[in-house]
Amino acid sequence: MYKVTVQPSGQTFNAEEQENLLDAGLRQGLALPYSCRGGSCGSCMVTLKQGSVDYPQGEPLALSPYDMEQGRALLCQAVAVSDLEIDCPQIGELADIEVKTLPVRVEKLRKLNQDVMEMTLKLPATERLRFMAGQYIDLLLRDGKRRSFSMANAPTGEAFIELHIRHVPNGYFTSHVFNEMKEKTLMRMQGPLGSFYIRELTQPIILVGGGTGFAPLKSMIEYLKLKGFEQNVYLYWGVRSKEDLYMDYLPRDWMNRYPQFKYIPVLSEPKPEDEWQGRTGWVHEAVVADFPDLIAYQVYMSGPPPMIIAGREAFLACGLPAEHLYSDSFDYSPDTLKALAEKQA
To answer: Which of 53, 115, 202, 287 maximizes the CB count within 10 A of its CB?
Structure first.
């Protein structure tokens, strides 16, 4: 067993051999930062001040050679091989947010396009879920498995939770949602989870979403809208074709009503029938083209791991301070990855 000291708070926890540091800290009640738990988003990155770690599963995708040279580590993948002292200024920001396990009812199912379903969950009459804009919940399935989905509504204390669920061909849960699930279905959920949430900072905000990565960004924008948009906010939404902008009307309406808000949709593979006159290519490249110097900004990314990895590298190269880059990587569950592989075979 190894002792881990977290600075600057001075909190400590113990990690078993071969236990990743994130699991160890959360198990002992520390509010450590995290999101994807798969090593691809970088949300749990800390700096090692003393001691050494190992990566039994191999070097994580979000940990570059430069990061390792700078003594950085990912809590969700690293295991201690000695006592440690780590620098983690973010710890404690979510300490007063209670993680609850609750029954919920499927209040509404609405198809937003060919492969995205809006699911509205209703909480018990005596319960409300306190959360930060950008966090997610886990739906607890009967076979003991979980599915993670970001909450798309603002944290206003209402009785409903909005989720955007993308259909994965051959995916067990998403196929059930699209083909079999009925309104009024009872489920169980756990949340709020993750450390991807809007910070109370003064710098202009750049939001970068890929596909249903729009969901947590929608929560953030609605929260910022309630506060009156105290700084400029830029939303870049990257998808393949026009039909994948499943709520395109909403950010366009925000842009018309709020001068502080700008919306830039980016299509990577527009179809001829789209007659698209807007931006094309990769969404992170559109951000870099518009903001070659990011030193005075804060950036929030949510979407598939390749977008998160490419965006992180590009934005840091443009001078974005690492402590002002926040991300939520939408990793697939192991059985969903298996279903995707079977489809491609």
So the answer is: 287
Number of CB atoms found within 10 A of residue 106's CB: 18
Report how far residue 43's alpha carbon sits from residue 58's, in angstroms, rounded to the nearest whole number: 18
pLDDT digits (tens, 9 = 90+) for 4-17: 999 988 889 999 99
Residues ≥6 apart with Cβ < 8 Å to 338: none
Strands 279-280 and 136-140: what pairing? unpaired
Decide if 74 is inside a domain. yes
Indicate the residue type of 308: I
Give pLDDT tens digits for 147-183. 999 999 999 988 999 999 999 988 899 999 999 999 9
Q: Looking at the domain assignment, is residue 151 inside a domain?
A: yes
- Phi then psi for residue 147, to 5 deg, are -135, 130
Alpha carbon distances (Å) from 149 to 82, 144, 216, 220: 35, 16, 9, 15
User: 21: Cβ–Cβ under 8 A, 6 or more apart, which residues?
Assistant: 4, 15, 32, 53, 73, 75, 76, 78, 79, 80, 84, 86
CATH number reported for the structural domain that contains residue 292 in this entry: 3.40.50.80
Whether the ω angle into residue 155 lies within 30 degrees of 0, i.e. cis, is: no
**CA atoms of 32 and 30, how far apart (whole Å):** 6
DSSP category for residue 275: -
Q: Does one domain contain both 77 and 112? A: no
298-to-229, 291, 325 alpha-carbon distances in Å: 15, 12, 6
Range of the domain at 83: 2-87
Token readout for 102 is 């609750």
- For residue 71, the number of C-alpha atoms closer than 13 Å in the C-beta half-sphere is 11
